[in-house]
Amino acid sequence: MKHFLMNRKKMISQQPSTFAEMTANYWSISLDQVLKELNASVEGLQANDASARLSKYGLNTIRVKQQNSIGRIMLNQIKSPLVLILIFAAIISGIVGEWVDALIVLVVVAGSTILGFSQEYSASVAIDKLRKQVTIKSNILRDGKSTILPSENVVPGDVVLLSAGSLIPADGIVLEANDFFVNQAVLTGETFPVEKKPGIVSENASLAERTNCVFMGTNVRSGIARVFIVQTGKETIFGQVAERLVSTPPETEFEHGLHEFGTLLTQIMMVMVISILALNFFMNKPFFDSLLFALALAVGISPELLPAITSITLSHGAKKMNEHGVIVRRLNAIEDFGNMDVLCTDKTGTLTEGVVHLDNALDIFGNSSKDVLRYAMINAHFQTGLDNPLDEAIQQAAQDAGIDIQDEQKISEIPYDFVRKSLSIVAENKQRQRFLITKGAMDRILPACESVQFGSDTIPLDAATRDSIEKKFGDWSEEGFRVLGLAIKEVEKQTDSYTYKDEHAMTLIGFLLFLDPPKTDVEQTIEELKKRNVQIKIITGDNAKVAKHVANHLHIPVQNIITGSDLNKQNDQVLWHLAESATIFAEMDPNQKERIIHALRKTGHVVGYMGDGINDAPALRSADIGISVDTAVDVAKDAADFVLLRKDLSILQKGIDEGRKTYANTLKYILTTISANFGNMISMAGISVYLPFLPLLASQILLNNFLSDFPGLTIASDNVDYEMIEKPNHWNTRFIRNYMILFGLTSSIFDFLTFGVLLFFFHAQPDEFRTGWFIESLLTELVIALVVRTRRPFFHSRPGNLLLASSLFFIGLTLVIPYIPFLKIFRFVPLPIPLLMALIGLTMVYVLATESVKKLFFTKIAKQ
Ligand SMILES: Nc1ncnc2c1ncn2[C@@H]1O[C@H](COP(=O)(O)OP(=O)(O)OP(=O)(O)O)[C@@H](O)[C@H]1O
Ligand SMILES: [Mg+2]
């Protein structure tokens, strides 16, 4: 950061001429000058001016590279050196030998490339469209009115209104602020919120010292402000450091597994190509044919369609999730979603109705009191922080009771914060008395009080009174009420600025009892989640007893309860242990929520976190899977990988299922590839050493590969057996390796049987041999996909329509290929019917054999 600022200063010391340079030190010059520089006013822009600026300065985004450009995907397809070598070799062989063969090779390679490209491209377009559904918006003054627009449309010169929970859209200076605290940890590393106010700071002020500026990417913790935007997009500090900040997300477990798998196949392929070339060379076979043969084999082995398959299954998963109301913001989190085995959730709105209702305002004796409600109303009415259900419920109740606070005047506010868990207002009444009115969690309010209001008297808070208050509080909590304490104190008038330090020596005047009943329909979902081996843990800022009440109501078995103060006493190692066994974490502040997530992840869990408040953002970020809702504050949405359209656990359960299906289907493609395709190529390499001719021509191998790819592409939409979504999935290299050996071996046995039948039984000549082997290898690849897609006997699991239809179509096509005159250019010859029958018979036996091997594999070898 320092380095960057120095560069910037260097820039300033030269002749300022461009816009960026003129506004480069805007924090140290007068507001009037900044306004003049930008030709704007504190009243905001006119809409037409704004759109002119938008085309001048560009969209307010930092996305540096266009993620899914046609060029990038195209390049991905052909960047494989293998394909390039193959094209090159084909051209050379064309020049020295037969043009037709070379051309066929080129055409088939082009076909495969276009197929992969078109699939991957349309998948990426679909994903982009889905992702656009969650846009972060800003409240901008346009034409003198506050207007909600996508943050991308913010331009220099705009005036933006910010409140708690807002993400700051661009860099600017503060025009007006009210208890305005900003968290700018992303830029400065400082985790405590800092206050921002209007003013001027020195030209050399560091980022942390620019208390008059707000920066893109940071967020508002409390209070409100009006800011004037100076720099947008890549001109912002965040934009400048973004390349470093948003560096590629770490590989998921699944991606890592895929990589490993790809590398393994590439290594095998290299060894094979080189040895085949060497052997054929010694055996004096035609050089170019052998070279092309070896390269085509290599293409056959390399899982060239894997990137496309991964994109297609992911985009298919994203679309399905979208149908259920889950918007995917980070695509490769879909598989993590399926892997999740612990789900931490907040309480309000997820487990409860979320519509909070003020059940009663009580005095110290526990009697309903209008006076208490009145003070509560003053507090709730004047607070300017985030709209929240508690304050709304108070206002509603006070209105219904006809309470009028018109004579009250607000003097100051000490905004709500998640660690202090209280909110104070200083107000003055008609008699010009000033009161500090504080409401908050009982465990914070009670220690701040020295006395209690006893009827019209005030008496000291002694041990006996404290006990009786705590008992009442405990009883109400157990009944499921969220209880806030309400305390007041008369304050001096010398000053208008009060801080949380004034919240002491207060008088407790009563209690506010809120009711937020548990949702009736979540019990079923929790049961479903349990069936899928996902544990539920509740993490809430609320009181332990209330949380327990809700859990009991929903029949969530509660093992252990940890409170915020318990947590503070433990070091990390102990916490790892404790977190494992606890079901409820209560009275947690935002940082404690994050600590719990870390602890659970440390003990090997894949952790999901669901929350919608500013206080949930740190935990959302540190979880493997962050889940939020559309109605959540921007910071929470921004930190989430998935956004639910409704706060509903059942949507979440469907999301988990889709995640697991996506994983299962990608795995199916891999299993198909390694069982038949791979085995075939190896067998072919083996037999080529023995045969005096090439077992297949290069063009035939490529055609084979091309045709078997088609059904492969439909795997994304295949049905998934229930037992595949029952458990979280984890990539397992050993499983893949064992699978490859066992199924590859089975395939090879049948391949050599085929070779034997062709050579010794039917005495096939080269062209006939190739045609026969072409049919057999393609048939086995097509049918095996239907066998390995399920762990059940294949006839007990119905394939998806597309997969079934395309498999049947290509099986049919394979059988008639030798009889299609047009395909003669591939040098196929019509086979005698008995030979064709023998091949079909062999394939059927092969299916039965693989079924038995599969049964053996899943009962004996891979019991997982
Ligand atoms: N507006 C408010 N005024 C005063 N006190 C509040 C206010 N909002 C919350 N509190 C206190 O802070 C506690 C924690 O609230 P917070 O909103 O942080 O919980 P949470 O973790 O979001 O809960 P949940 O899991 O239910 O979403 C509340 O139980 C209450 O005692
Ligand atoms: Mg909350």
UniProtKB/TrEMBL annotation:
Entry annotated with the keyword Metal-binding: no
Keywords: ATP-binding, Cell inner membrane, Cell membrane, Magnesium, Membrane, Nucleotide-binding, Phosphoprotein, Translocase, Transmembrane, Transmembrane helix
Main location: membrane
Enzyme class: translocase
Transmembrane segments: 78-96, 102-123, 264-284, 290-314, 739-761, 773-790, 802-822, 828-849
EC code: 7.2.2.14
Domain of life: Bacteria
One cellular component (GO) term of this entry: plasma membrane
SMART domains linked: Cation_ATPase_N (SM00831)
Locations listed in the record: Cell inner membrane
Catalytic activity: Mg(2+)(out) + ATP + H2O = Mg(2+)(in) + ADP + phosphate + H(+)
UniProt cross-references to Gene3D superfamilies, sorted A to Z: Calcium-transporting ATPase, cytoplasmic domain N, Calcium-transporting ATPase, cytoplasmic transduction domain A, Calcium-transporting ATPase, transmembrane domain, HAD superfamily/HAD-like
Domain named Cation-transporting P-type ATPase N-terminal: residues: 25-98
Short name of any one Pfam family annotated for the protein: Cation_ATPase_C
GO MF entries: ATP binding; ATP hydrolysis activity; P-type magnesium transporter activity
Mode of membrane association: Multi-pass membrane protein
PROSITE patterns named in the record: ATPASE_E1_E2
The family this protein is said to belong to: Belongs to the cation transport ATPase (P-type) (TC 3.A.3) family. Type IIIB subfamily.
Function noted in UniProt: Mediates magnesium influx to the cytosol.
Name the UniProt record assigns to this protein: Magnesium-transporting ATPase, P-type 1
Organism for this UniProt entry: Flexilinea flocculi
